[in-house]
Amino acid sequence: MSESADTKAAPAKVRVSAVLEGTPSGGTGAGVFAVCITTLILLNVLAVVLATVEPVAARIGPVLHWFEVFSIAVFSIEYLLRVWSCTAQDRYAHPVFGRLRYAVTPMALVDLLAVLPFYAPFLIRVDLRFLRALRLLRLTRLLKLGRYSESLRTVTRVIRAKKGQLSVAVFVVAIMLVVASSGMYYLEHDAQPRTFSSIPAAMWWGVVTLTTVGYGDIYPVTTLGKVVGAMIALLGVGLFALPAGILASGFAEELQSQRAEEKTCPHCGREL
């Protein structure tokens, strides 16, 4: 948050923005808020997990319900405060378009999805099956930890820095999957017409083989199919190591950059 934004925005709005965003000007309030909201997020994930255990849900169902209501209230207030105070930052300074711009940022959308399933039945008539699916969105609250965890922010920075290389690796893996599945379909279709009924059906075998998981539910029976399958499995070992190597390189570079920043004076830029 810059000084120009601070002078334009009301002091209360600037203070709230600093606490919510965890900037140094937020003081101890920012740290306390981060700890409290992180704890609440983790408890929410635990509540979602416990709700799927029928004996536990039957015993403490009302407790889980009221905890959900309390959590929704807290997350809703947090979201509204973020939308209200975002104009304290220069990039969202406009009272209308700034807030709209902020509302479509990835983390703001995560905040919205964290509370949306609760309000959806009150706003629109929702089919019960769709409502059950909406409840899965409660797990998006776990993504809110990205705001408060430096480790998760480091992961995000690494992925962003290596997105080009990762995209190439994923593209190569996708091509290999299509080629392997197509080849196995033509080799095994006559011998196993129901198992390898189409190329999309063969892609399940391709994913399981390339990742070297090997469930064994689908496998080639022809001699040529077994030979090609073995070659694809060996290629998969190296192919899926590519993204891991790219991420490892990114983490090494990020840690080296952080060490360099720690050794540099933030005021004069000289090495300590």
CATH topology of the largest domain: Four Helix Bundle (Hemerythrin (Met), subunit A)
Shape: extended
Task: Detail the poorly predicted runs.
Answer: 1-8
Largest sheet: none
The top level CATH class name of the largest domain: Mainly Alpha
Describe this structure in words.
The chain is 72% helix and 0% strand. It has 272 residues and is an all-alpha fold. Helix 2 (11-21) packs across helix 3 (27-51). The longest helix has 32 residues, at 54-85.
Q: In a nutshell, what does this entry contain?
A:
The protein is mainly α and 272 residues long.
Key phrases:
about 0% strand, mainly alpha, 12 helices, about 70% helix, Four Helix Bundle (Hemerythrin (Met), subunit A), Helix Hairpins
